[in-house]
Amino acid sequence: MSSQVTTRALTPVEGELLGELADPGSPGASRAAASRPGATTEGDASAGTTASSDVPARRTGIRALLRGGPRGFIRGLTRPGALGRHRALLLGTAGIVALGAVWQTAVGLRILNPEIVPGVGATLAELVRLVGLPGFYVTLGQTLLSAGVGLVLALVIAVPVGLALASSAWLRRLLNATIDALRPIPPIVLLPLAILAIGGGLGFKVTLVLQGALWPLLLQTSYGLRAVDPLQTDVAASFRIDPLRRLFLFRIPAAAPVIFSGLRLAASTAFGVSVMTELVGGERGLGSILAIAQSGNNVPRVYAITIITGLVGLAIAFFFGRLERLLLPWQEATR
C-alpha cells in the first residue's frame, strides 16, 4: 500500500511550517522538543490579538445601535421590534463570547491542561499569524476546489437520478437495496481503494467528496419530487400542459426547498471530506497543514486550523442559506 503513495512538491505554506520545525528557535520546534521524554521547556508568553470587524448595516443595523454609546445601544435595543431584528446576530455572538470565556477560564484555572488546550489568546494569535502566511489562501482554495468540483458532480448526478427514482416505482424497488448498501460507507473507508485505483491528485479527492456528497442530494431530490401535491400536477395535466413543462413549472419549484436542504448538507459534507482526504491522504490543502502542525506538536496551530475549518464551514452554510433565500423567495415568505 505504501508503494502507491507518491511524493509531491511542498506548497509555500507547508514549506514555511516545515521550516519552523527545522529551526531550533522556532515555536513549533521547541514544542516538538518538549514532547520528548525528559525534555524541559521554557514558559512562552502569547499575546492575544483582537480583531474588530465593522459589520455593514442599514439604518436600523448594529452600527446605528452602537452610534450613541452604551446608553444609545440600550435605547436602540429597547425600541419596539429592534431586538427581534438583531436577535440571531446577538445570540450567536453571545454564544461565541461565552464559549471563549469558559475556554479561557478553564485553561487559566488549569481545569484543562495548557499543554493540551492552549489559551484563547495564544490560539487567536496563531490564527492571525497563520492567515498571514504566503500562500495560505491558495492552500484554502485547493480544499475548496476539490469540495466544489465534487459537489457539482454530485448535483449533476443526483438531480436526474432522483427525478427518475421519483417517477418510477419499479426503478426505486430495483435500486433501493444498492443505495442502502452504498450510502452508509464512510468516504475514509474508500480511501485505500481510491489510492490504488486513482493514485493521488485532484481526482482522488473529488472521488471521495462525490461519495460523501451524492447521497444527501440524491435522497432529498427523490423525496422532494415524490412529496409534491398530486393536485398540482393533475390541474396542470387538465390544462394539457406537457410533462416537461409540468416538471419545470410545478414539480421542481415545489420540491426545490427539500432539494436545497440536501444541497446544504451535501456542501458541508463535501468540505469536510475534502479536509479529511488531505489530512489522511497527504494531498495539498487545509488538511495537509493540519497534519504538519500535529506532527510538530504545535498545539496552538492545530487549534487555529481547526477554528479556520469551522469558520469556513459556517461561511459555506451561510452562503447556501442566502442562495436559497435569493432563489426561493416564496419559501422565505412561508416561514
From TrEMBL:
- Would the keyword Membrane be found if you checked this record's keyword annotation? yes
Q: What is the designated name of this protein?
A: ABC transporter, permease protein
Q: Which residues cross the membrane?
A: 88-107, 119-140, 147-170, 190-210, 248-267, 302-321
Q: Name one GO cellular component term.
A: plasma membrane
Region of interest (Disordered), ranges = 1-55
- Record's subcellular location: Cell membrane
Q: Which CDD domains match?
A: TM_PBP2 (cd06261)
Main localization category = membrane
Spell out the Gene3D superfamilies in the cross-references. MetI-like
Record bears the keyword Transport: yes
Into which family does the record put it? Belongs to the binding-protein-dependent transport system permease family.
Topology class, membrane: Multi-pass membrane protein
**Family matches, as PANTHER family:** ABC TRANSPORTER PERMEASE PROTEIN MJ0413-RELATED, ALKANE SULFONATE ABC TRANSPORTER-RELATED, MEMBRANE SUBUNIT
- BP term (GO), one: transmembrane transport
Pfam families (alphabetical) = BPD_transp_1
InterPro entries with a match to the protein in the record: MetI-like, MetI-like_sf
Task: Tell me the keywords, alphabetical order.
Answer: Cell membrane, Membrane, Transmembrane, Transmembrane helix, Transport
Where does this protein have compositionally biased stretches of type Low complexity? Answer: 24-39
Q: Which domain of life is it from?
A: Bacteria
